[in-house]
Amino acid sequence: PSALSVQLAQLAKSEAIQTLLATELQTAASPLAQQIVLRAMIEARPATTPPAWLDALATVLAHRDAMVLKLAAEAARTLKQPKGGHAALRAALLALGKRREVAIETRLVP
């Protein structure tokens, strides 16, 4: 992880930083920026995952960049989901699993 993603992970207890991460994940023009955000989310490991993070993950799982997809799948695997799951994230993961152009290691999310 980059120094920036580690710093963001440490600050992720703040609601403002949580919002920033969710927004940046969905709107960043650069896959590199999205990778930094995803690494920060994974490293933060909040006791309760902000719903906006799960929404953002569901959106980014339609991305084409291989590393963004790999990290998004890892985040979906790592972050705690609410009881009953998150419908949009579940649907996005199922859609990802059907994308043959995506590496099998990325598509196989337990």
Question: Could you give the topology of this structure?
Answer:
Layout: H1 3-11, H2 15-27, H3 31-44, H4 51-60, H5 66-78, H6 87-97, H7 104-107
Key words describing this protein structure:
110 residues; mainly alpha; 7 helices; 0% strand
Major β-sheet annotation? none
User: H/E element string?
Assistant: HHHHHHH
SS class: mainly alpha
Overall residue-averaged pLDDT value: 93
DSSP, total strands? 0
Distance between the termini: 23 Å
- The tally of helices reads 7
How much of the polypeptide forms β-strand, as a percent range? under 5%
The helix content is 55-70%
Question: Which shape, going by the Cα principal axes?
Answer: globular
What is the rounded Rg? 13 Å
Q: Low-confidence parts lasting 5 or more residues at pLDDT below 50?
A: none
What does the model show?
Helix content is 67%, strand content 0%. The chain is globular and about 35 Å long. The model has no long low-confidence stretch (mean pLDDT 93). Helix 3 (31-44) packs parallel to helix 5 (66-78) and helix 4 packs parallel to helix 6 (87-97). The relative contact order is 0.15. It has helices spanning 3-11, 15-27, 31-44, 51-60, 66-78, 87-97, 104-107. The two termini are 23 Å apart. With 110 residues, the chain is mostly helical. The chain is built from 7 helices and no strands.
